[in-house]
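Re: weekly structure request thread

Next one in the queue (959 aa):
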Amino acid sequence: MVGRWGFQRWQGQGPTNRYFAIDLPIVGRTICLSELEFPSRKEAAMNAPVRAADIKNAAISLPIEGMTCASCVGRVEKALKAVPGVSDAVVNLATEKASITADASIDRAALVKAVEKAGYEVPASFLAVPAAAPAASGPVEIAIEGMTCASCVGRVERALKAVPGVTEAVVNLATEKATIKGSADNAALVAAIEASGYEAKLINSTVSERAVEIAIEGMTCASCVGRVERALKEVPGVTQAVVNLATEKATIRGSADGAALVAAIGNAGYEAKLLSVAGAAGGQPATDDRAEKKEAERRELTRDFTIAAALTLPVFLLEMGSHVIPGVHALIDSTIGMQNGWYLQFVLTTIVLFVPGIRFYEKGIPALWRLAPDMNSLVAVGTLAAYGYSLVATFAPGFLPAGTINVYFEAAAVIVTLILLGRLLEARAKGRTSEAIKRLVGMQAKTARVRRDGKVVEVAIDAVANGDIVEVRPGERVPVDGEVVDGESYVDESMITGEPIPVSKKNGSEVVAGTVNQKGAFAIKATAVGGNTVLSQIIRMVEDAQGSKLPIQAMVDKVTMYFVPVVFAVAALTFAAWLYFGPSPALTFALVNAVAVLIIACPCAMGLATPTSIMVGTGRGAELGVLFRKGEALQLLKDAKVVAVDKTGTLTEGKPALTDLELALGFERSQVLGLVAAVEARSEHPIARAIVDAAAAEAIALPAVSDFESVTGLGVKASADGKGVEIGADRYMIQLGHDVGGFAKVAERLGNEGKSPLYAAIDGKLAAIIAVADPIKPTTPAAIKAMHDLGLKVAMITGDNARTAKAIAAKLGIDEVVAEVLPDGKVEAVRRLKSQYGKVAFVGDGINDAPALAESDVGLAIGTGTDIAIEAADVVLMSGSLQGVPNAIALSKATIGNIRQNLFWAFVYNAALIPVAAGLLYPSYGILLSPVFAAGAMALSSVFVLGNALRLKTFKVAS
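Done, posted below.
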């Protein structure tokens, strides 16, 4: 039928949607409002998230091209349900995908044929992609597109948690990913996200516990974050789901299927894309097309803002110019006439709202219809209210009371334009927050030169296997982790350690992928490739930290879940109050103030406050060689009152050298050193290595050893050359019944010199006292001073004798010493320090430090230490220097301070300006807030938060 203003419109009822469409001749575009999905409550229940329990054997996500309205949806659903083996098919027009429940043996080509027969197309890539993996028992990661705010996050999380088998679902708005734990079917998870209205893609999954990362598009505020997280946590198999608004990603842990996670996010109203899945053994960091998509999004926003601004300017001049510029009103009236001016404003504003501004209605109205409003809903309702009122005033003024016939086309157009500007600035700022990860990913070599069959061939990096011999030329990046087998050079390892001085590499030296070779050339034997390289692990650590939520975020999530509904309630109360109690014209006042309330509210700033600071802070940490394995460490580390450090390898080089060997009567140096070195060769302790190296330097042959036994924390014993040999500290000798009094003066002197005295007994007789010195690292004194400058106490916990420990402590200015402790004793020492001072950060590097690292409030592992120590730590210091500790603590304080600034701004902004927008100041001061000003303030609020977070990029290390 043809409407009053020349619109061609029609309406009808599809199988799952009511719909109508309008044809705008002036726009040249048909807007099919079934795209906005207006289901009834009954139909909404029918379109609930797909659950694993409803799926017999397989769930398939089928992309479809060419659909334009609800009729298309019904046609495709009917065609798919007619395919043998299909038990259900739900088509989503917004995501242009079908979620199909079918037998596992279903022929995917038959599905494609059915869609094509109905008159639509399926991308060729569908048949090239393998079917979804079966349900797993580890975390699944799903990329999600379409999320814009915390409401979106909550929606996706709820959808995911509704899938049977999901134990936890965490959606990250910033990374646009969802991580799901549990045993849910992957396809069911994807279907749940897509049913929520978002695009979802399974990044990867394994049969074990794993972390899934999903990119999410469409989130705009903290409400979206909460919505997506709830949706993910409802997916069966999800044990944890964290959504980050700043990175637009969700990290999900558990066993849920990635496709089901994507579906849950989609069901929550956002687009999702699976980025990566890391299993127990780890996986290679994702290299997806998200950077290109983000760049495309920025170009699209630039285009839309330019169009909107160009069309809004004449609307603004026509309306506001007549009010503020003398003579403009008369000029318009005498040329085109005021009524024709209104017609022109209507035409231009309609284009602004429904062409560049259509994104707000495509996302906001369906979310509102699902009773899960987000920021887009606020913008959509606010602008449509102003636009609708203006339509009535322009074309049916008789319906309005006298004195209220005004148009607000300029308000609607300017609001859309300013918010597009805010989105554009926000997109550009978001791109800068993830630069650290981009740089790390950019350090990965794409190819490598490998020796094969007597030739050197260049192969893709994925084709390199452990054991391959790889050549590295001058100026090239090392492609994989390996050991130098030929040649020598200097390698710049600053990207790993933060230290700018190149490191010498020769035969037997270890090299790390991503580091840069200098002038020499060498060949390496690959020892770690793909996702197992140090660089890949660093990228995963940084991504995990960026995707995590701090405890401080819990309060924000609770507030934002109710924020948007409360804003709608405040706007409704504002409208009612002004309508019944306001001055004449009451309707005009009511409309303007209600729209101002809707527009000025900014859940985006609240949602971005924490994750953006975490992203920039952890990224800056990675540049400094400080890797936060867990995001919570950022918050906990700033509260540390005392730093407890292990001595060997932490304060010292960890490469001791033999300095003294005093013999008892009746023993020869070569005999004692040979027997002791033979036994110590079985040990991996640095002191043992020093003794073995000393014997090798003197060309002493080592006899065979048997019955070797390590006595934890005390020493070792064994049989060598037919003699019983016992080596250890004085307390071990006393325990064995040996009298160490004869070496008392020597032991006192050595201890005062900061050396570690050991005793050796041969065939039951005390044979020698051995002194080994471990040089203090050059950076240690400055690091201790920096910690003192931060107001921290420093304690040393070591298994060395008290005299040696106190000598080193006095030399370095360490506040407290706990010496001669076993690994369990280190744990007790940490507990005592916690009860005495408060929060404790422990720094260690060895296997024996792992229990203390785990017991401390925050554990920091020296990156040159053992894998066990690193696994037990919350923070990894890649440089091997203690200077990383004050750097990490200072960065923690700066990051948490930045988060608090952002949260203060976000909450104070909303708490202060929403009442002003409602007109609270009008009775006393006559002040009202224009919706146009409200739009500008809202657009800039999130940009302010992002800009403040970016200040962390300039963080300077402690000097």
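The longest helix spans residues 290-324. Residues 1-57, 128-137, 279-288 have pLDDT under 50 and may be disordered.
Next request, please.
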